Amino acid sequence: MKGEPQNGYSEQEIIQGIKENNEGILTHLVKKLTPKVSHWIKRNGGFKEQAEDIIQDTWMVVLIKIHSGKYEEGNFEAYFMGVSRNIWLKGCRNNPMTKHGDPSEHPIKDLSEEELILKLLKDKRYEIVHQKLMELSEKCRNIIALRYYKDTKLEDIADQMDISVYYAKIKLHRCRNYLSELLKRDPDFTID
Predict the structure, then answer these.
(1) With 60 as the cut, is the pLDDT of residue 78 above it?
(2) pLDDT band at residue 19, thresholds of 50, 70 and 90?
(3) 3-state DSSP helix/strand/coil percent for the chain, to nearest 5?
(4) How far apart are CA 115 and CA 18, in angstroms?
């Protein structure tokens, strides 16, 4: 029901809290919605990493809708779950081999407004990630490319790089942290 409190916050408080970047409301929503979306995606054949991507993509779409004034009040939790499901299902339909395709691979004419927003944001993010990857050492670029772009198992990465699996795991973790720090420092990577 419109405006009905959701665990102590009314619909209006939630929307206003999101607009004002209220840490308490945002933390409450993340803690409440993340496990629900993650559970739904895993129950429907997805993996933890895919769920994390869907949740991030959903937040981008929802934030843009709210800040642009295009969000129609109702039940925020149901809306968030619906956007998550739509992103997941659209990815499954378009790329059944990977269960969740990359929205940037689909023609723009076939995209809904939400999917178009998502595509534009992802394209910009991919460009920034690529730029930041180029700032990393060659070893870091290689290990990240093998793991995340070529979906290579850690054991195979260790063999290819002639290092132990343990060291490959540590190196991957460090390289991810370096990349993450570079991205955090880039003002264009955040979505406000």
Answers:
(1) yes
(2) confident
(3) 70, 0, 25
(4) 21
